[in-house]
Protein backbone atom coordinates (compact mmCIF):
# COMPACT_ATOMS: atom_id res chain seq x y z
CA UNK A 1 0.00 0.00 0.00
CA UNK A 2 1.44 3.36 -0.94
CA UNK A 3 1.37 5.99 1.76
CA UNK A 4 -0.40 9.26 1.19
CA UNK A 5 1.66 12.44 0.95
CA UNK A 6 0.55 13.27 4.48
CA UNK A 7 1.92 10.01 5.82
CA UNK A 8 5.12 10.15 3.75
CA UNK A 9 5.91 13.71 4.86
CA UNK A 10 4.84 12.90 8.39
CA UNK A 11 7.18 9.91 8.53
CA UNK A 12 10.15 12.01 7.51
CA UNK A 13 9.28 14.80 9.94
CA UNK A 14 8.79 12.32 12.79
CA UNK A 15 12.23 10.70 12.54
CA UNK A 16 13.96 12.94 15.16
CA UNK A 17 11.19 12.33 17.72
CA UNK A 18 11.06 8.61 16.94
CA UNK A 19 14.81 8.38 17.48
CA UNK A 20 14.52 10.28 20.76
CA UNK A 21 11.76 7.92 21.93
CA UNK A 22 13.76 4.87 20.87
CA UNK A 23 16.90 6.14 22.60
CA UNK A 24 14.88 6.86 25.74
CA UNK A 25 13.57 3.29 25.70
CA UNK A 26 16.68 1.32 24.83
CA UNK A 27 19.62 3.67 25.07
CA UNK A 28 21.68 5.58 22.55
CA UNK A 29 22.59 2.63 20.45
CA UNK A 30 22.40 0.95 17.09
CA UNK A 31 19.36 -0.86 18.43
CA UNK A 32 17.50 2.48 18.73
CA UNK A 33 18.11 3.29 15.07
CA UNK A 34 17.17 -0.24 14.04
CA UNK A 35 13.87 0.23 15.90
CA UNK A 36 13.22 3.48 14.06
CA UNK A 37 14.03 1.86 10.73
CA UNK A 38 11.66 -1.03 11.41
CA UNK A 39 8.98 1.47 12.47
CA UNK A 40 9.32 3.39 9.21
CA UNK A 41 9.18 0.24 7.10
CA UNK A 42 6.12 -1.03 8.96
CA UNK A 43 4.36 2.34 8.82
CA UNK A 44 5.03 2.56 5.09
CA UNK A 45 3.68 -0.91 4.39
CA UNK A 46 0.69 -0.54 6.71
CA UNK A 47 -0.16 3.02 5.78
CA UNK A 48 -3.64 1.92 4.72
CA UNK A 49 -4.42 1.35 8.41
CA UNK A 50 -3.70 5.00 9.19
CA UNK A 51 -6.64 7.37 8.79
CA UNK A 52 -5.62 10.72 7.30
CA UNK A 53 -6.15 13.56 9.71
CA UNK A 54 -5.80 11.47 12.86
CA UNK A 55 -2.82 11.51 15.20
CA UNK A 56 0.06 10.35 13.01
CA UNK A 57 2.71 10.75 15.72
CA UNK A 58 0.74 8.63 18.19
CA UNK A 59 0.29 5.99 15.47
CA UNK A 60 4.05 5.94 14.78
CA UNK A 61 4.96 5.85 18.48
CA UNK A 62 2.58 2.91 18.91
CA UNK A 63 4.32 0.99 16.12
CA UNK A 64 7.75 1.75 17.59
CA UNK A 65 6.65 0.84 21.11
CA UNK A 66 5.17 -2.48 19.99
CA UNK A 67 8.28 -3.28 18.00
CA UNK A 68 10.45 -2.45 21.03
CA UNK A 69 8.57 -4.93 23.23
CA UNK A 70 8.59 -7.56 20.52
CA UNK A 71 12.36 -7.28 20.09
CA UNK A 72 12.94 -7.01 23.84
CA UNK A 73 11.10 -10.28 24.45
CA UNK A 74 13.15 -11.94 21.71
CA UNK A 75 16.44 -10.58 23.04
CA UNK A 76 15.63 -11.60 26.60
CA UNK A 77 14.86 -15.13 25.47
CA UNK A 78 18.14 -15.29 23.57
CA UNK A 79 20.23 -13.85 26.41
CA UNK A 80 18.52 -15.88 29.14
CA UNK A 81 19.69 -18.95 27.31
CA UNK A 82 23.23 -17.78 27.94
CA UNK A 83 23.12 -15.79 31.17
CA UNK A 84 19.98 -14.80 33.06
CA UNK A 85 21.72 -11.91 34.76
CA UNK A 86 22.69 -10.33 31.47
CA UNK A 87 19.07 -10.33 30.31
CA UNK A 88 18.15 -7.74 32.91
CA UNK A 89 20.74 -5.34 31.51
CA UNK A 90 19.53 -5.32 27.94
CA UNK A 91 18.34 -1.75 28.03
CA UNK A 92 21.42 -0.53 29.89
CA UNK A 93 23.67 0.52 27.08
CA UNK A 94 26.82 2.57 26.67
CA UNK A 95 26.00 6.19 26.80
CA UNK A 96 28.11 9.24 26.10
CA UNK A 97 26.35 12.52 26.62
CA UNK A 98 28.16 15.86 26.82
CA UNK A 99 26.40 16.84 30.05
CA UNK A 100 27.22 14.71 33.10
CA UNK A 101 23.89 15.48 34.80
CA UNK A 102 22.04 14.30 31.71
CA UNK A 103 24.25 11.23 31.53
CA UNK A 104 23.35 10.35 35.13
CA UNK A 105 19.71 11.02 34.42
CA UNK A 106 19.79 8.77 31.37
CA UNK A 107 21.48 6.04 33.41
CA UNK A 108 18.78 6.41 36.07
CA UNK A 109 16.05 6.24 33.42
CA UNK A 110 17.55 3.00 32.13
CA UNK A 111 17.15 1.46 35.59
CA UNK A 112 13.37 1.93 35.53
CA UNK A 113 11.11 -0.95 34.50
CA UNK A 114 10.14 -0.55 30.82
CA UNK A 115 6.48 0.25 31.53
CA UNK A 116 7.40 3.09 33.88
CA UNK A 117 10.08 4.37 31.51
CA UNK A 118 7.75 4.59 28.53
CA UNK A 119 5.04 6.29 30.61
CA UNK A 120 7.31 9.02 31.89
CA UNK A 121 8.88 9.61 28.46
CA UNK A 122 5.54 9.76 26.64
CA UNK A 123 4.00 12.20 29.12
CA UNK A 124 6.97 14.14 30.40
CA UNK A 125 9.06 14.48 27.26
CA UNK A 126 7.11 13.60 24.13
CA UNK A 127 4.14 15.83 24.96
CA UNK A 128 1.36 13.26 24.74
CA UNK A 129 -1.78 13.59 26.84
CA UNK A 130 -2.70 10.88 29.35
CA UNK A 131 -5.35 9.64 26.91
CA UNK A 132 -2.90 9.46 24.00
CA UNK A 133 -0.27 7.73 26.13
CA UNK A 134 -2.87 5.23 27.34
CA UNK A 135 -3.76 4.43 23.73
CA UNK A 136 -0.10 4.04 22.75
CA UNK A 137 0.61 1.81 25.76
CA UNK A 138 -2.63 -0.14 25.41
CA UNK A 139 -3.78 0.48 28.98
CA UNK A 140 -6.16 2.64 31.02
CA UNK A 141 -5.47 6.29 31.84
CA UNK A 142 -5.36 5.38 35.53
CA UNK A 143 -2.60 2.88 34.80
CA UNK A 144 -0.60 5.55 32.99
CA UNK A 145 -0.87 7.88 36.00
CA UNK A 146 0.07 5.11 38.39
CA UNK A 147 3.15 4.16 36.33
CA UNK A 148 4.07 7.83 36.05
CA UNK A 149 3.92 8.30 39.79
CA UNK A 150 6.00 5.20 40.47
CA UNK A 151 8.52 6.26 37.81
CA UNK A 152 8.95 9.70 39.35
CA UNK A 153 9.40 8.23 42.85
CA UNK A 154 11.87 5.64 41.63
CA UNK A 155 13.87 8.13 39.55
CA UNK A 156 14.18 10.43 42.54
CA UNK A 157 15.35 7.54 44.73
CA UNK A 158 17.96 6.51 42.17
CA UNK A 159 19.26 10.03 41.61
CA UNK A 160 19.44 10.81 45.32
CA UNK A 161 20.86 7.44 46.32
CA UNK A 162 24.02 5.59 45.38
CA UNK A 163 22.55 3.12 42.88
CA UNK A 164 24.21 4.79 39.92
CA UNK A 165 27.70 4.47 41.35
CA UNK A 166 27.10 0.82 42.20
CA UNK A 167 25.36 -0.03 38.92
CA UNK A 168 27.19 -2.23 36.40
CA UNK A 169 29.53 -0.35 34.06
CA UNK A 170 27.63 1.18 31.15
CA UNK B 1 1.09 14.09 19.41
CA UNK B 2 -1.19 16.78 20.67
CA UNK B 3 0.18 20.28 20.80
CA UNK B 4 3.54 19.93 22.53
CA UNK B 5 2.88 20.82 26.14
CA UNK B 6 5.36 23.18 27.71
CA UNK B 7 4.10 22.94 31.28
CA UNK B 8 5.54 20.31 33.57
CA UNK B 9 3.25 17.41 34.34
CA UNK B 10 2.08 17.68 37.97
CA UNK B 11 2.78 14.02 38.67
CA UNK B 12 6.31 14.21 37.29
CA UNK B 13 7.24 17.47 38.99
CA UNK B 14 9.66 20.25 38.10
CA UNK B 15 13.03 18.67 38.81
CA UNK B 16 12.52 15.36 37.02
CA UNK B 17 10.43 16.98 34.29
CA UNK B 18 13.13 19.48 33.34
CA UNK B 19 15.84 16.82 33.08
CA UNK B 20 13.55 14.51 31.15
CA UNK B 21 12.80 17.20 28.58
CA UNK B 22 16.47 18.14 28.30
CA UNK B 23 17.44 14.53 27.69
CA UNK B 24 14.70 13.94 25.12
CA UNK B 25 15.47 17.21 23.33
CA UNK B 26 19.18 16.39 23.22
CA UNK B 27 18.32 13.12 21.47
CA UNK B 28 15.79 14.73 19.12
CA UNK B 29 18.25 17.46 18.14
CA UNK B 30 20.96 15.02 17.09
CA UNK B 31 21.71 14.86 13.38
CA UNK B 32 19.60 12.21 11.66
CA UNK B 33 21.83 9.50 10.13
CA UNK B 34 21.87 9.22 6.33
CA UNK B 35 20.47 5.68 6.54
CA UNK B 36 16.97 7.09 7.02
CA UNK B 37 17.02 9.32 3.94
CA UNK B 38 18.32 6.32 1.98
CA UNK B 39 15.58 4.13 3.45
CA UNK B 40 12.79 6.54 2.43
CA UNK B 41 14.31 6.83 -1.05
CA UNK B 42 14.43 3.02 -1.34
CA UNK B 43 10.80 2.68 -0.20
CA UNK B 44 9.77 5.26 -2.79
CA UNK B 45 11.67 3.41 -5.52
CA UNK B 46 9.97 0.14 -4.65
CA UNK B 47 6.62 1.88 -4.62
CA UNK B 48 7.28 3.49 -8.01
CA UNK B 49 8.39 0.16 -9.49
CA UNK B 50 5.25 -1.55 -8.19
CA UNK B 51 3.06 1.21 -9.59
CA UNK B 52 4.77 0.91 -12.98
CA UNK B 53 4.31 -2.85 -12.94
CA UNK B 54 0.62 -2.49 -12.14
CA UNK B 55 0.21 0.05 -14.92
CA UNK B 56 1.92 -2.39 -17.29
CA UNK B 57 -0.45 -5.17 -16.24
CA UNK B 58 -3.38 -2.89 -16.92
CA UNK B 59 -2.18 -2.26 -20.46
CA UNK B 60 -2.15 -5.93 -21.38
How would you describe the overall organization of this protein?
The complex is a heterodimer of chains A (170) and B (60). By secondary structure, chain A is an all-alpha fold. Chain A folds into 2 domains: 1-94, RNA polymerase sigma factor, region 2, helix turn helix motif (Rna Polymerase Sigma Factor, Chain: A, Orthogonal Bundle); 97-170, Orthogonal Bundle (Arc Repressor Mutant, subunit A), CATH 1.10.10. Chain A has 9 helices and no strands. Chain A has helices at 5-26, 30-45, 56-82, 84-87, 100-110, 114-124, 130-137, 141-160, 163-166. In chain A, helix 1 runs antiparallel to helix 2 (30-45) and helix 2 (30-45) packs across helix 3. The termini of chain A are far apart. The model of chain A has no long low-confidence stretch (mean pLDDT 87). Chain B has 60 residues and is an all-alpha fold. Chain B has one domain. Helix content of chain B is 68%, strand content 0%. Chain B is built from 2 helices and no strands. The longest helix of chain B has 26 residues, at 34-59. The mean pLDDT of chain B is 84. Chain A binds chain B through residues 2, 8, 11-12, 15-17, 19-21, 23-24, 28, 33, 36-37, 40-41, 44, 55, 57-58, 61, 97, 99, 101-102, 105-106, 109, 120-121, 123-129, 132, 145, 148-149, 151-152, 155-156, and chain B through 1-5, 8-9, 11-13, 15-17, 19-30, 32-33, 35-36, 39-40, 43-44, 47, 50-51.
Provide a concise account of the structure shown.
The complex is a heterodimer of chains A (170) and B (60). Chain A is mainly alpha-helical.
Major beta-sheet overview of chain B: none
CATH topology (level 3) name of the largest domain in chain A: Rna Polymerase Sigma Factor, Chain: A
Structural class from helices and strands of chain A?
Answer: mainly alpha
Number of domains of chain B: 1
Percentage of residues in helical conformation of chain A: over 70%
Q: Strand percentage of chain B, roughly?
A: under 5%
- Overall shape of chain B: it is elongated
Report mean pLDDT of chain A, rounded to a whole number. 87
Instruction: Count every helix of chain A, treating DSSP H or I runs of 4 or more residues as helices.
Output: 9
Q: What kind of sheet is the major sheet of chain A? A: none
Q: Per CATH, which architecture of the largest domain in chain A?
A: Orthogonal Bundle
Number of strands of chain B: 0
Most extensive protein-chain contact, per-chain counts: A-B, 47 and 36 residues
Distance between the termini of chain A: 42 Å
Low-confidence stretches of chain A: none
